[in-house]
Structure prediction request, 396 residues.
Amino acid sequence: MSLRTRLASAWRRAEAAHDQLFVARWRQGLRREVRRQEDTLRALVMLESLGVDNPVAYETLDLVPYLVADLHAWHRRMGQESFGDPGVCC
Amino acid sequence: MLLIRFFGGKGGVGKTTLAAAYALGRAGAGERTLVVSTDPAHSLGDVLATPLSGQPREVAPLLWAAEISGEEQARRRVAEITEDARHAVPREVLPAVERHLARAADSPGTVESALLDRLTGLVEEVGARWDRLVVDSAPTGHMVRLLSLPALLTPWIEGLARQRERARGADRLLAGMLGGERERPDPLLDRLHARRDRLEWLRARLRDDALVHLVLVPEQLPLAETLRAAEALEGGGLRLGRTVVNRVVPDDETGVLARRREHQERVLAELAGRFSGTGLVRVPLLPDALTGAGELGELARRLGEL
Prediction:
């Protein structure tokens, strides 16, 4: 093995370690933040589905299809074919 | 220009008759006038002696009338959204979308929001299709809530939009880092902003172009309610027009009516003090209820331009 390939493979290893140590953790944190923000929005718009009175339900009616579609995409990503009944998703 | 006029007051004080008469007068003066009733127990059709629906119909030269309903508007909007969703979301989630929409449409406040939405549509046509819009509003408490709705809704929608922007911001950062997808327009955010803009537009339009005429009969209970309504409306950023005092007993009456007249004088004096800025219009007690364009004519002349 030439010095050059050895150096290149060491660099790749170092890069992978750095990625695992720092970038992956950061990415995970960010992903969690995205999910949290999206969940909050979903909860705010679909309050009445949770049994809470929503004073502006009418004003946010046209968000409902998109939020249900989001929920659908999410449970499919999580590997579940169906999620709840038609009252929740599918 | 104060082209939008609301007539509000306790049930039974004659606001529908007065709104109809005023609208008739404006139409007679050459203005294309639309008069709508928002009271769930519609009586505008009875006053005009003609059947009405949610869509404006010409009932006299230059006069159109409609009885609008929040329930009807909410049903229509849910149907539109369901139709749009057919093209926008996966087919398997459509039953869930319909259930969620039905639940949202049953929420308290939906009927009033929907009514305001319908009214916004009509206000948008003022200046184009109509020269004047006359609204025979529902009883006082309902009307006040209805008109203060934009003030309550805007901060809520702004909160939602901010929430969405935060989620999108984090999402974009993540996508950029992964070298992911290009930026797409966000239909949710667009809709939230459009909704808020529409409400703000209505609020500004009502502040600039609308007057609320409170209607009452000169008695103690309607007086108390009218004073409260005046405070709430002005607090909500609306302007009051001349207050209409209906069924004032003429001063040549004798017996029971003469005693009634004394009581009315006290109420009228108090009203004159409170509404010295905007002024009062007195409408005398009439022997019969007025219906139809012919009978409303005299009343229309008395109200004039208001």
In short: Residues 17 and 28 of chain A are 16 Å apart (CA to CA). Residues 1-35 of chain A form one domain.
